[in-house]
From TrEMBL:
Protein name: Carboxypeptidase
PANTHER family, alphabetized: CARBOXYPEPTIDASE (PTHR11802:SF123), SERINE PROTEASE FAMILY S10 SERINE CARBOXYPEPTIDASE (PTHR11802)
Domain of life of the organism encoding this protein: Eukaryota
Record SUPFAM superfamilies: alpha/beta-Hydrolases
An example Gene Ontology biological process: proteolysis
Described purpose of this protein according to its UniProt entry: Probable carboxypeptidase.
Signal peptide annotation: 1-21
InterPro entries reported for this sequence: AB_hydrolase_fold, Peptidase_S10, Ser_caboxypep_his_AS, Ser_caboxypep_ser_AS
Compartment(s) of residence: Secreted
Entry's Gene Ontology cellular component terms: extracellular region; vacuole
Assigned EC number: 3.4.16.-
Organism: Linum trigynum
Length: 461
């Protein structure tokens, strides 16, 4: 009953927002004339705020990059980073699959930007992340998955008032890491609202190295460490019997870490070494802290500080006054833009609530689902994601339509994939880290293009 009332109130908010007058795109106040240091491009960019709670003056920040060619015919793709509490602007747009990457005082083109295939919308969510803010500081307290989904769906509908030409456009939601919680819950809410009024033209979701089921995802870390030679046989046995990783995380967030789990995790940490990046176990150079977005998955109690030997150019760039002015961005209640929020108090135990069952509901509703894994990531390893997708397919009675096989990007193997029915698939990206588009941009773009087009990944080069 309570859920029905909340949904009804949300529908009233959304429908009321639909009558608000929209602004002509040709004279849009949110258009970015030019980002400082930006090379010449033919596509348009927009950024600004959408108020999702007028009472608390809560506004979410977005960055829209139109498709490079023929944007009117291309779908709209929403991108969400995880954390919870990390920036889709700084991580997704400026480090992974956006059109530019900071390089000193300038921006350089990303030749594998996802706006080659779609209109890309990056959202800094929940409130307190990046440039998103609230005048009421209580908005940053006890934020949970349900509240995040509600804010995101209100954002989308009110954003359509700014950009009405996208209202009937095919919509896809993509993201990574803790977005394995954000995306299914947002999509479920969108489908519920569509039952009364066709508001969203959601076609599919794609999630990279996502947290979908707490125990399966986190406990696969032990097998990954052992199979890649990061821990010994004896430590692997302890890590799978005496204290597995999900138990440790549960104890940590309840301030009740047992001596047994503390001893096991100290042994694991010693053997894996603080000089190996857990987000990309084959990388032999240190990486920017901007890539460390799994705040909940890797609690502070066990994760080593990342040695930042490369200047974090995104942080420097996004804190420049001329860049803030160009983005129409404001710093409210904070001194600096940060990759991951220091003011957001998220209900971290939400991580224990599985979202894989919601993914099943989406598949049954006709929403295409892709789960993909960078195969060098030990934070949310491919073993857990692959087993969850396979188990879901069995539960739904879906037959394999494309058997597990290699796929190609150019003349090299891009990864492996398996397809169930026409609506559910799993793929790996060979050589990719937790942030796949950052570490394997060409292969990630091939995967993204095939997903949007509803085509099978190429099996020959």
């Amino acid at each position: 009953m309570a859920m029905a009332l909340r949904l009804q109130r949300l529908m009233v908010l959304v429908l009321a927002s639909m009558v608000v007058g929209s602004v002509s795109l040709s004279h849009h106040p949110d258009e970015i004339s030019r980002l400082p240091g930006q090379p010449h491009v033919s596509f348009r960019q927009f950024s600004g705020y959408v108020t999702v709670d007028h009472k608390k003056h809560t506004s979410l920040f977005y960055y829209l990059v139109e498709a490079e060619t023929d944007p009117a015919s291309k779908p709209l793709v929403l991108w969400l980073n995880g954390g919870p509490g990390c920036s889709s602007l700084g991580v997704g747009a400026f480090s992974e699959n956006g059109p530019f990457r900071p390089n000193g005082k300038n921006l350089v083109r990303n030749g594998y930007s996802w706006n080659r295939e779609a209109n890309m919308l990056y959202l800094e969510t929940p409130v307190g992340v990046g440039f998103s803010y609230s005048i009421d500081n209580s908005s940053y307290l006890a934020v949970d998955d349900e509240a995040t989904a509600r804010s995101n769906v209100v954002f989308l509908q009110r954003w359509f008032n700014k950009f009405p030409q996208y209202r009937q456009r095919d919509l896809f939601i993509t993201g990574e890491s803790y977005a394995g919680h954000y995306i299914p819950q947002l999509a479920k809410l969108m489908l519920q609202m569509n039952r009364k009024h066709r508001i969203f033209h959601l076609k599919g979701i794609a999630m990279g190295n996502p947290v979908l089921e707490f125990a399966t995802d986190l406990n696969s870390r032990a097998e990954y460490f052992w199979s890649h030679g990061l821990i010994s046989d004896s430590t692997y046995k302890l890590f799978t019997s005496a204290c597995n990783y999900s138990r440790y995380v549960s104890e940590y967030y309840r301030d009740s870490v047992s001596n047994l789990c503390a001893d096991v995790m100290n042994q694991v940490t010693t053997e894996t070494s603080r000089f190996v990046d857990k987000y990309d176990v084959t990388l032999d150079v240190c990486i920017p802290s901007i890539l460390s977005q799994s705040k909940v998955i890797s609690p502070k109690g066990l994760s080593e500080a990342i040695d930042v030997c490369v200047e974090d150019e995104t942080v420097n760039y996004l804190n420049r006054k001329d860049v803030l002015a160009a983005l129409h961005a404001r710093l409210v209640g904070v001194r600096r833009w940060e990759v991951c929020s220091n003011i957001l108090d998220y209900e971290v135990l939400n991580i224990e609530k599985p979202t894989i069952s919601i993914v099943g509901l989406l598949v049954k509703a006709g929403i295409r689902v892709l789960v993909y894994s960078g195969d060098q990531d030990s934070v949310v390893p491919l073993m857990g994601s692959r087993s969850l997708v396979h188990r879901l397919a069995r539960q739904l009675g879906m037959n394999t339509t494309v058997p597990y096989r290699a796929w190609f990007a150019g003349k090299q193997v891009g990864g492996w994939n398996q397809v169930y029915g026409e609506m559910l698939s799993f793929a790996t990206i060979r050589g990719a880290s937790h942030e796949a588009p950052f570490s394997q941009p060409e292969r990630s773009l091939m995967l993204f293009k095939s997903f949007l087009e509803g085509k099978h990944l190429p099996e020959v080069f």
